[in-house]
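Memo to structure team: turn this sequence into structure tokens by end of day. - J.P.
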Amino acid sequence: MKKILTTLIIIILSLCALIPTVKGVSFKFIATPDKTDAKSGDTITISLKISDIDAGELGINTFKCSFKYDESIFEEVKITSKNNWSITYNDQKENEEYGTLLAVLLSAGVTEDQEIGEITLKLKEDTQGKTGNITFTEVSSNDGQVTITDTDKTIVINIAGEQTVDDDNNDNDQNTEEQEPQNEIAEDDSNIIINTIEDDVTISKDPIPQTGNKGEIIFIGVIISAIVALIAIIKLKRYKKTK
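Reply from structure team:
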């Protein structure tokens, strides 16, 4: 038995040695803004970089993600390619690939940290006191055989200043203040009417009958009688058995 067990262990170890070791591939995508606190009309520049590339000797030469920004905060968006990378952005909203940012390296793959491009966004006027979000999701690359992914990235831009109040809201507030005296007059009129009606009402001195009280008493009496009868029947049966 020991010989058979030893033989099985040797066979298993031999098979494990024949299985090739699969090494994980990975990379990091870094999006760094030149500032996160800005003013209305300012320009934000975001550096796009890949780092910590672990994808074999050939490295990677493609990059893809979904790039979205708050269109109510930012107006102009410009994308610039760097270091022989070619970046395209699909800004056609009716297209299924809307928001897709694709970067392709025109030469061999890279294995070292490298900046692939930058994105420039301009803040709209009258956006003070607001925040604008810029997101990079579905981040991926490949080593020629398998897809490599990285985590989503979100950049929040804080815009200095206080939010402006619409003139329409100010007009509504003023109209509300002007209408307050009218409401007070209406309330006084309603009090006068109520007092007049109360004076005309004749209140009876006789007690108001409470419907349903007698019926409840009879119902309770019937239940008590039934319980007493049931107890008497049980005792009578027990008495007969003992006799």
